[in-house]
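EI: anyone free to look at a 281-residue chain?
SC: sure, send it
EI:
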Amino acid sequence: MIKKVLAVITVVVVIALGLLAYSFFKAPEEASAPLEAVPVVVEEEASQPEVETVEETEIVENPQTDPAIAEAQAPSAEEPVNEETANEETTNEETVASKAPTIFEIVSTESEARFIIDEVLRNEAVTVVGVTDQVAGQFAIDQADLSRVQMGPIVVNARTLATDNDFRNRAIKNQILETDAYEFITFTPTEVMGLSGSGASGESYNFQIVGDLTIRDVTRPVTFEATATPLSDVELEGSASVTILYDDFGLTIPAAQAVSAVDDEVKLEIDFVATAVEQSS
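SC: here you go
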């Protein structure tokens, strides 16, 4: 009886070790397709309804009124319209009405998303950095009024994250992030704070981006500290970062014999270049 129990335990252990080894060494799924930005939805400012004011001239009909007074009360002939002034005012109104925020899109080949975490590897402190250029997003900016900035989701393809170690890469993708099932990490902005006034090329602006970060199947609110610098009317660069606890997202780092300690915090960063995109009329 004891031999049978030991045999069953041995089989279970062998299977468990086999599954564990498979999860470490199996090749993760490749990225399903080139990453594309989710279009930002530009919300128009609510316009104030125009109130038409009509001035009326009251004419007192009194047969005894002096003819001179009656003539003064009567509506005067319309003054000639200055066509040049009228056209100029119409043009200005049309220009203001047609002015819309510029939509910028992240250029993946010139951008990078990464995570940074500290660990103790073979009794030495090591900083692990995982990077990818597969990051996409759009945002709309009115350089005359930066407070009107609007942002769409920022998406990172987790299957393309890579460190300097293939063994670690497989562990991250197969066991920690489970990228076969959850290919994308998504940050959905809900509010931008700290921007106001007009923008100028070459000047840097510091602000905060509040939103919902989704890793695997867990979503948590976070706030990125961000900096952006317009390089011209059609190009800008910037960066953003936030520190999270990976346990808050239900992530577990598997034990490894060579790793004696792993920090609880992970820093997420993005450096980006974005260019203006043509808008359909």
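EI: Helices lie at 2-25, 67-73, 83-98, 166-176.
SC: 👍
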